[in-house]
């Protein structure tokens, strides 16, 4: 095992500076993470620009773009109600960015020598997205309801004796939201990529080991990794959907106090 | 027991939580399907709640995975 070389599944997540830039002791380099986020942005922009020609009889591309916007619009109006219309652009940006960034990380560009970097596999990215959602919830909540917003922590019909306990629990569950939002996305991406890396290296080291058992292990690993790749595509979509859905639910809490 | 073996055993024990989360996720989708087949008309309206339950159950498994990774790569 040691002869085959140690597997380093964490190497794929390293952030490398492409264009070093240091300003006043801060590292502001243009990294591969930033480069892949720009690619994500370009793909979303291209997709929407191609689909927004506003033809009377929509073509295939316009139908795809309208399907995507309609899906988000429906989700927002079901979860927030008519007042949520103004948040549709934000939810839409969140959903498309996360979805495209997740899917880009799965592209098999390694055979071309290009290493696709999953920008959503870092807590610094998903954490910022989560904090953005959380601060929008706070701002909207305090803007609309003022200090009445704190009634969020005391559900209707709570007995007087239970109020301190319920309020403490509700407060903790409220403050944990940004962490759980960001953590879920980044850990799901990390876990899937590590799984694929580990089983991918089993294929190589199995054939290298030779004998009767080695290739058998390789073939089983290969069949397994095909299934895992399909599962990962599903997870990419589900995580983007869950992030957008939870954001719209939290916004619902802030707009229509429960 | 030296540090390296204790580390690997600890990471393995922490990974049990992932299996427990698998039971939870299965429970969420199983219960949803069971009740959706009883009243298919109401099933579509509950899909948001289905994914909230899924997200909550899955998060705990992912945290178990993160703990296992932290233990495995701790020095």
Automatic annotation (TrEMBL), chain B:
<keyword id="KW-1003">Cell membrane</keyword>
<keyword id="KW-0406">Ion transport</keyword>
<dbReference type="Pfam" id="PF00137">
    <property type="entry name" value="ATP-synt_C"/>
</dbReference>
<protein>
    <recommendedName>
        <fullName>ATP synthase subunit c</fullName>
    </recommendedName>
</protein>
<keyword id="KW-0375">Hydrogen ion transport</keyword>
<feature type="site" description="Reversibly protonated during proton transport">
    <location>
        <position position="58"/>
    </location>
</feature>
<dbReference type="GO" id="GO:0033177">
    <property type="term" value="C:proton-transporting two-sector ATPase complex, proton-transporting domain"/>
</dbReference>
<dbReference type="GO" id="GO:0005886">
    <property type="term" value="C:plasma membrane"/>
</dbReference>
<dbReference type="InterPro" id="IPR035921">
    <property type="entry name" value="F/V-ATP_Csub_sf"/>
</dbReference>
<comment type="function">
    <text>F(1)F(0) ATP synthase produces ATP from ADP in the presence of a proton or sodium gradient. F-type ATPases consist of two structural domains, F(1) containing the extramembraneous catalytic core and F(0) containing the membrane proton channel, linked together by a central stalk and a peripheral stalk. During catalysis, ATP synthesis in the catalytic domain of F(1) is coupled via a rotary mechanism of the central stalk subunits to proton translocation.</text>
</comment>
<comment type="similarity">
    <text>Belongs to the ATPase C chain family.</text>
</comment>
<dbReference type="InterPro" id="IPR000454">
    <property type="entry name" value="ATP_synth_F0_csu"/>
</dbReference>
<keyword id="KW-0446">Lipid-binding</keyword>
<keyword id="KW-0138">CF(0)</keyword>
<keyword id="KW-0813">Transport</keyword>
<feature type="domain" description="V-ATPase proteolipid subunit C-like">
    <location>
        <begin position="9"/>
        <end position="71"/>
    </location>
</feature>
<dbReference type="GO" id="GO:0046933">
    <property type="term" value="F:proton-transporting ATP synthase activity, rotational mechanism"/>
</dbReference>
<dbReference type="InterPro" id="IPR002379">
    <property type="entry name" value="ATPase_proteolipid_c-like_dom"/>
</dbReference>
<keyword id="KW-0066">ATP synthesis</keyword>
<dbReference type="InterPro" id="IPR038662">
    <property type="entry name" value="ATP_synth_F0_csu_sf"/>
</dbReference>
<comment type="function">
    <text>Key component of the F(0) channel; it plays a direct role in translocation across the membrane. A homomeric c-ring of between 10-14 subunits forms the central stalk rotor element with the F(1) delta and epsilon subunits.</text>
</comment>
<keyword id="KW-0812">Transmembrane</keyword>
<feature type="transmembrane region" description="Helical">
    <location>
        <begin position="6"/>
        <end position="29"/>
    </location>
</feature>
<keyword id="KW-1133">Transmembrane helix</keyword>
<keyword id="KW-0472">Membrane</keyword>
<dbReference type="GO" id="GO:0045259">
    <property type="term" value="C:proton-transporting ATP synthase complex"/>
</dbReference>
<feature type="transmembrane region" description="Helical">
    <location>
        <begin position="50"/>
        <end position="74"/>
    </location>
</feature>
<dbReference type="GO" id="GO:0008289">
    <property type="term" value="F:lipid binding"/>
</dbReference>
């Amino acid at each position: 095992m040691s002869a085959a070389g140690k597997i380093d599944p964490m190497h794929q997540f390293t952030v490398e500076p492409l264009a070093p830039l240091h300003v006043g002791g801060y590292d502001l380099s243009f990294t591969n993470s930033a480069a892949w986020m720009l690619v994500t942005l370009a793909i979303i922009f291209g997709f929407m620009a191609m689909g927004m020609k506003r033809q009377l009889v929509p073509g295939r591309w316009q139908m795809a773009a309208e399907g995507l916007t309609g899906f988000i619009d429906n989700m927002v109006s079901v979860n927030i109600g008519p007042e949520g219309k103004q948040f549709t652009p934000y939810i839409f940006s969140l959903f498309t960015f996360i979805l495209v960034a997740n899917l880009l990380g799965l592209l098999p560009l390694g055979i071309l020598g290009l290493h696709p970097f999953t920008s959503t596999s870092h807590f610094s990215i998903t954490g910022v997205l989560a904090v953005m959602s959380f601060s929008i919830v706070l701002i909207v909540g305090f803007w609309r309801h003022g200090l009445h917003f704190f009634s969020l922590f005391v559900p209707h019909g709570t007995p007087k004796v239970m109020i301190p306990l319920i309020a403490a629990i509700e407060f903790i569950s409220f403050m944990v939201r940004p962490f759980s939002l960001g953590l879920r996305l980044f850990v799901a991406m990390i876990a899937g990529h590590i799984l694929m890396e580990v089983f991918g290296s089993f294929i190589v080291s199995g054939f290298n080991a030779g004998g009767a058992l080695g290739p058998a292990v390789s073939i089983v690993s290969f069949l397994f990794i095909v299934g895992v790749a399909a599962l990962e595509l599903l997870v990419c979509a589900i995580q983007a959907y869950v992030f957008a859905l939870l954001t719209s639910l939290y916004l619902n809490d802030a707009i229509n106090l429960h | 027991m030296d540090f390296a073996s204790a580390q690997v055993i600890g990471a393995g024990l922490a990974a049990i939580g992932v299996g427990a989360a698998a039971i939870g996720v299965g429970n969420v989708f199983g219960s949803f399907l069971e009740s959706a087949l009883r009243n298919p008309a109401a099933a579509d309206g509950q899909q948001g709640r289905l994914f909230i339950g899924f997200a909550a159950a899955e998060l705990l498994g992912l945290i178990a995975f993160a703990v296992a990774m932290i233990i495995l790569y701790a020095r």
